[in-house]
Amino acid sequence: MSQEWIPSLVHFFGMLLLVASFGMIAAPQIMASVRAYAIHSFLLAMITVLVALAGHVEHLLISAGLTVVLKTIVIPRVFSRMIHRLGVRREVESYVNVPFLLLISIFLLFVSFYVTSGLRGLEPVFSREFVPIAIFTVFFGMLVMISVKKAMTQVLGLLLIENGLFLLGITMTFGMPLLVELGISFDILVAVFIMGIFMLKIRGAFEGIDMDDLTGLKG
Amino acid sequence: MVLILGAAPAVSWFIKKMKAISQNRVGPRFLQVYFDLIKLFRKGMVISDTASWIFHAAPYVFFAGTIAAALMVPVIWKGALFGFMGDAILFVYLIALGRFFLVLAALDTGTAFGGMGSSREMFLSSLAEPALLLSFFSLAFHTKTLSLAGMMSGLAMDPPHRVIFFTSLAFGAVLILTIAESGRIPVDNPATHLELTMVHEAMILEYSGKYLALMEWGHQIKQLLFLTLLANLFFPWGMTGTFSVTPVFFSLALYVGKIAAGALVIGWIEIHFAKLRLFRAPDFLAIAFVLALLSFLGQLMVGR
Question: Whose CB has fewer CB within 10 Å in chain B, the N or C terminal residue?
Answer without folding.
Answer: C
